[in-house]
Hints:
Layout: E1 21-23, E2 34-36, H1 38-48, H2 55-67, E3 69-72, H3 80-91, E4 105-108, H4 113-121, E5 144-149, H5 159-171, E6 176-180, H6 183-187, H7 191-205, E7 209-213, H8 222-234, E8 239-241, H9 253-270, E9 275-277, H10 285-298, E10 311-313, H11 316-329
Parallel strand pairs: 3-4, 3-10, 4-5, 5-6, 6-7, 7-8, 8-9
Antiparallel strand pairs: 1-2
Helix pairs in contact: 1-9, 2-10, 2-11, 3-4, 5-7, 7-8, 8-9, 9-10
Amino acid sequence: MKPLATLKNTPPTSQVRTSHLTHRASPTGYAHLPTVDAVTLEERAAEFTKRSIKTSAKLAGLKLAVSVCDLTTLEGKDTPGKVAYLCRKALQPADAKYDVPPCAAVCVYPNMVKYARKFLDGSGTSILPVRSETHGRDARATPKVAAVATGFPSGQYPLRTKLEEVRRTVADGADEIDMVIDRCAFLAGDHAKVFDEIAATKEACGPAHLKVILETGELVTYDNVRLASEIAMQAGGDFIKTSTGKVNPAATIPVTLVMLEAIRDYFFATGIRIGMKPAGGIRNSKQALAYLVMVKETLGDDWLNPQMFRFGASTLVNDLLMQIAKQVDGNYQSSDYFSLP
């Protein structure tokens, strides 16, 4: 297998075929959308878990996985001190000798944004990401500040309240907003309401990027995931995201594949690149590498960077760091040598 850095710049033509998708009429106004053959989809998804990545390609993949992690804490007991600690880990996940890039972002609740912004702005690192050959950006790049909003995790707040929360969070310094869709409206068939709320949230974000959380564990079917992905992209989402991490199942490879193919088809139809963020349940390096292979073979090189792909992670980073140390030193370090997530 070729190193991850050798990908093509556009989705590979060999992956353009959607053999497990067939077109059908839709009463919702999305008649162009395909339906998903679950059996074929799951067979295809299972193939990604069987790939073997070795030596230098594995080390590159592990460092890439660190660089696309949104290091996350979403607990009621979060404090400014814990957020500062998380920011410090995101800036320098491992000892400098391992040449590990910073994480892509720190993701927190809205009332913690100002503390993350203060710490990162005072870190003395470069704010603008710089491309590099090893992991897509310079090691001095500052992680972004991301915040969940719009009544996370339920999404069951009045729209006015949701938009006020978004505007306040951006004013406090958030670079990215992770919103949740109203699953009640979606499952009731009120897709126009879902679209309008995403569009209004995007407008409220101003300069901040918008990640749209579908909460796929509550959408029941792959067809619903496909439809929700399309609505989110058409309404202006910069990313589509699987889950809040508060519902099981969270991210899975089959669900993520449905969303990646929706992104690919949207790119071919519009020329617009939409980002992807699987979140929840991705806990070890083997899983992370399988996701990266899936992105590589479905979308191509242009998506293998922090600007277009993220992992929502709390426990994943330490496993990645342990594997990097193994690749560099030839033996595993104790987990005691790594700070808690």
